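Two entries, shown back to back:
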Amino acid sequence: MDAKALNVLPGAAHPLGATLTANGCNFAVHCPNATEVQLCLFAKDTEEQLAVIPLPAKTGKVWHGFIEGITEGQLYGYRTCGENNAQLGLQFNPEKLLIDPYAKALNRPLVWNAQQYHGDSQFMIAKGLVLKTSECRGRITKPRVPMSQTVLYEAHVKGISQLHPDVPDAHRGKFLGLSHPSIIKHIKSLGVTSVQLMPVMAFMPERYITEKGLTNYWGYNPINYFSPDPRYVVADGVCEFKSMVDSLHEAGLEVILDVVFNHTAEGGLDGPTLAFKGLDNASFYLFERNEYGTVDYRKYVNNSGCGNSVNTAYPYVLKLVMDSLRYWVQEMGVDGFRFDLAASLGRDPYEFSSVSGFFRAIRQDPVLLNIKLIAEPWDIGNGGYRLGQFPSNWVECNDKYRDTVRAFWRGDKGHTSDFATRLLGSRDIFPKENRAIHTSVNMVTYHDGFTLQDLVSYNERHNEANLEQNRDGHGHNISSNHGFEGVTGDTQIKALRDRQKRNLFATLMMSQGIPHVLGGDELSRTQQGNNNAYCQDNEINWFDWELSENEQDFLDFCRHMIKLRRDSELLSQLNLEDDSYSLQHNVDKINWYRPDGERKLVDDWHDHNNQAFAVEFVGLEPADTVNKTEHWLLVFNATDHDVRFNLPLLSQAHGWKIMVDTRYPKLALQPQVAVKQVYMQAFKSICLFKVINDQT
């Protein structure tokens, strides 16, 4: 291909990216301070550079050109010329090939290679692919699950399918593997509603971890916000991702993407130039300021802990992020996003504000108006912990819920009143009238930390496989090994661990808010005590689908608890009369009891040794004659001994039916009886009762 033989026209400044037409392709890229921007074309098979074409036109901050004869599948990238001066924030270097920030697909995974990077980086850098604009007609209708019915299921594309016996070898670890009928059948049978996928946008594992012979398996190190990562692709990433989404939608399951707009794989001053640094480094990233307010372009702000912080307050960057979100919703079909370190996105640009430009832009966007927005409401920067401070159209991951529930069931004293607050939606954090009852995203486990099995099996982290001398990962896990560290054959310890798993999972499903289930917990997945398995692309992270009898029993229990929650209006969304956020209310009264049957008083909540209590939900009488009034009693005993509970008195015609008692390892062992007055609640267990008419 001879660049001189190509017919190059000025083209248009918008849309950004590569836009294919019948006659050729328009290329447009934001790069305000370069003296020249070169479009580079490459051979599909060898990635040999075929042509270097200086873009002929510049409109404002955008360089552009239309190249006749370009067809679908053409590989391309950019080189930029200009001043290379770190003190001014300028990093123009024509030896560094750059990925188009608006590329919709990359030809291969991006992997750090020191030899290929130094000098001309052409052969290290993945190339953008010119794609046709696809039609979105004929897609499966989105499920649009109400927040009150939402149950999140967090999964990794590779981890969930890599070892599944039904998935063809070629599809294992890919988008097509996740959408295999057997995988979808399992997710659907569990009862969850929304699959929250760990990052799927193109990323590059960090240099230091690559040079150790490991990788960034989780994918929280992005380099492009539009392209599906080629690691999860068989042949066509866009089509395969859409196919996966359509298959999940057809099963009634939503798709939520975990997105990382707080940093990129380019790192700090000594990090590689891969895309954004070489196009507009000074605007794309945040830099520290001295006491006089002068920006020091040699010092990247590091609110992410990964070397840099993306400046979403800058107009171009805000546009890029918004364009990305709209693309994944409109073109790719997803139903919402979980924003990693979302406090960074609320910095405008240095201090957090709940009315930042980013939040305002999302709130007014008609495409994003009705999608699910989930915040990880913190970053590691100054003033970065912002739980409860996001706009009301967001829901927030609640780490206070996680820590309180773990401590209560571990047997730590003094947590009962806080536990009760978490149970009813954490209204101390998300106040009535201002935030919906489902605002709290409740989790006991998340990808960064112990799995549920490990939470009840280890006192300490065991991250030696990460090759950091077991110094990485969080040291405050609020876990318990219940008498032995790790795998044991002791039947009593194993039985107690299984009971504690049931307690934790049942609590999650009976709490107001949105339950977040870590994928694989229902399968009793273990990471062998590793609580920071981000770099383990192996059996430590992959789901093991071969279940023992006990593991099958726990899976059955999880399904049962999710169904109980989703079948109940009160267990999934309590609407209180004094909460003007919603005009509807469905609760007649909520009563709190001591084991002796007396109502709890203020002093009872302050009793440090109080670890057993009950709460009663009495629903309003329905207007129709088909539905019946919901009436529940939740009994909790976190002590090390059985507790005799006096249950609230009912009429002669009614009784308390046991719906769940976590002391029993199998659902079939639960007694099918209605209790009238007294129940001996086993140590470290929960009992969920429902009022029934025992004369029918």
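entry 2 starts here
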Amino acid sequence: MKKVLRTFLMFAMLGVILTSCSKQKSSSSSQGALSSNAAERVYVAPGEYDEYYGFFSGGFSGQLSVYGLPSGRLFKVIPVFSQDPESAYGYSEESKPMLMTSHGFIPWDDSHHPDISQTEGELDGRWIFINGNNTPRIARIDLQDFSTAEIIEIPNSAGNHSSSFVTENTEYVVAGTRFSVPIPQRDMPIKDYKGNFKGSLSFISVDKTSGNMDLAFQIMMPGFNYDLAHPGRGKSHGWFFFTTYNTEEAHSLLEVNASQNDKDFIAAINWKKAEEYIKAGKGKKQAVKYAHNRHNTETHTATSTIKDEVLILDASELPGLVYLLPTPKSPHGCDVDPSGEYIIGNGKLSANLTVHSFTKMLKAIEDKKFDGESYGIPILKFDDVLAGVVEQPGLGPLHTEFDGKGNAYTTFFISSEVVKWKIGTWKIIDRKPTYYSVGHLMIPGGNSRNPDGKYLVAMNKITKDRYLPVGPDMNHSAQLYDITGDKMELLLDFPTVGEPHYAAAIKADKIMSKSRQIYKLSENKHAYVAKSPNDAKVVRDGKNVHVYMTMIRSHFTPDNIEGIKVGDKVFFHVTNLEQDFDVPHGISMLGANTTELLVSPGKTETFVWEPKEVGVWPFYCTDFCSALHQEMQGYARVSPANSNIGLSWSLDDE
């Protein structure tokens, strides 16, 4: 069996190469086949707006990128799990706590799956959530100003992959572990994996008004790998579905040893039942350690708090909490159609797409149509939950999205294509090549009750020969298809930041109307704010020196500072007196071991400078702000450590 699987995998990889090569040869003819007005249909004239915001995960960049659709223009890169020298996120004293974990300061992660907040199954454009895969975390980005507002670390987890997907009223964001581990962690032989390692599925509650998150509870699961997830919709609201692989519980050479079983599972989680068990006192508190980081919009300062316990529900002990739906084979994507009736399992090593019925699932549970159990969790009979099969649609199915018109679209990694098929009949309608090796796809609102079936975006892993060569570390790509007709039509491709695993898109007007335009100084409650040039000052506290500084077009106050000594630790607390959203200012200091600060209107940010030698050192504005931008500068004089020179500063007194 192992030899057969090795052969299959070898041919699969050969298929990727051959597909790539054949499509390279035919690329000129396929480009010529594009509709002659494709460029017109993605063109957004100067001064006009794109129809959609597209939010693309940054993968190994740890960021979230914002593109306009259909133009493919990059508008912003939002730093989430990584330091950003442009905005000083992760460098300023106010933002550093956002990157704290129980393991210390970690300014990197692997961000995979963004999901937009919803109300009654409709995208509402308030927040977007994204996961950190490596050091398990979930982040919330506030879409009023496109900034990271909160990050919560996930204990009892490793490889936080099946996240961050939200329920249809944003009651919960989920975080499912990809790699099972000993829970609680302990020293044990890896060969004893089977039966001893566990998976965890975390449910993070979201406050309906503020968006503030809290780790509500975790469900302990068997030691499988939990890959992707999707919430129930409509009739299946109250359920969450997770794909699993490695039900073999292998611990070595998983490409073979985790591919033995003909079927793995989709785990159906009844989170309404979980709430009942918690109310009945069935949860157990467990000692853990995890960081919860939150940015305060009034003080403009983040805090990091270490939490020490979590509420646990054990799936093997609580009847009705979890059921297992057999699904061929090594399923990756787990997707639910807008009605909530159909649950699609994309088995990477399966020749077919498997579609389960939620109605049949409930009936099978009621009639106890079980095919045994796994660690106390009932396994439903495959035929009793099966709705239908899409026969031999392609090679290497990964993900499915929906257009709201009764059609589904699935990506096939090995055959490099998107396939359109009809829900209910399971018949293939159309297929289009992608360039090359497509992973996720996205339809605006495709993860909601009401998809907007105008465009489809395919996210491709290989861009060989698609763009001008820039060396081996090539950008990945996104390709935009028009899906309004019976046949899909490729309109555009554009390079992306990092490796986008998934994306989410929403009509632009749902966010633009909420976009914050004015940042009032009167609302600034930072501990070191200076709300006018008259508040500017320099204060010594032993070896610490605090500079209360203001900036406005085109002047710093103070702009000349003397009395700083070698060995001092100088805190520059800089307040931008502008209040209109599009007038940030920057500041950078020669010799400061940090990035520049980009200070948004109405806000205060801090950087630290520890001068090592005497001299006169300049600072200046780094963000072009006016015709006199070059004149926006100042000096700091540093004297010997034993100097008797007292602090002095200029307030336009020359």
